[in-house]
Amino acid sequence: MYVLYGNIPLINSMFNGLKPAEIAPIIIALFKIGKKALHGTIHIVVAKVAFVCIFFFNISLLKTIIATIFLGLIVKAINHPGSMPRRLKNKFQF
Known about the structure:
Blueprint: H1 2-5, H2 9-37, H3 41-55, H4 61-79, H5 86-89
């Protein structure tokens, strides 16, 4: 429909009006997931840094996920040294 009638101002404004209706459920879901997943200050900081890296610095999502995994392993090794898997204990000893 947009391809055929997208040049008509009424149809174009109608599709532009749908954009906020599409974004609203995404933002609501983001807040719901954030309340369940982000428990501490470190989680919130990591989520914000990851967003800035992806959105402003155009770093790929895969690189951001890998960096976050390594950061989580380092934080876990520092806070709970006995809980690391045996094969990782030798690599992350502090």
